[in-house]
Amino acid sequence: MIPSAGILIISLLIAWFEIPKLKQDKATKEMIVFCFFLISGTVLSILSALRITIPNPVNWLIFLFEPVSKWIERLLT
């Protein structure tokens, strides 16, 4: 629980320093992308600190492309 609180505090500090700069520059699109990545990274870091297994995206790609690979292999042999 303590590591997740530390991660949250660090993320809030990063946002506290960066978002005013982005607002001052009127960089709305950049601020949206920044917030998306900061929130995504914070959530994944907290899940990792709590030892919750996070699915690997490569497994999703294997699941999607394995049938296509087998179909092409059957087609070529």
Question: Topology of this protein?
Answer:
Blueprint: H1 2-24, H2 28-49, H3 57-76
Describe the structure.
- The protein has helices spanning 2-24, 28-49, 57-76.
- The chain contains 3 helices and no strands.
- It is 84% helix and 0% strand.
- It has one domain.
- By secondary structure, it is an all-alpha fold.
- The longest helix is centred in the N-terminal third of the chain and has 23 residues, at 2-24.
- Helix 1 (2-24) packs antiparallel against helix 2 (28-49).
- The mean pLDDT is 94.
- It is elongated, with a radius of gyration of 20 Å.
What's the rounded overall pLDDT mean? 94
Cα Rg:
20 Å
Please provide the ordered H/E string of secondary-structure elements.
HHH
Q: Which runs of at least 5 residues are low in confidence (pLDDT < 50)?
A: none
Overall number of structural domains: 1
Query: How many distinct beta strands?
Result: 0
**Largest sheet properties:** none
Distance linking N and C termini: 55 Å
List keywords for this structure.
about 80 residues, mainly alpha, 3 helices
Short description:
The protein is 84% helix and 0% strand.
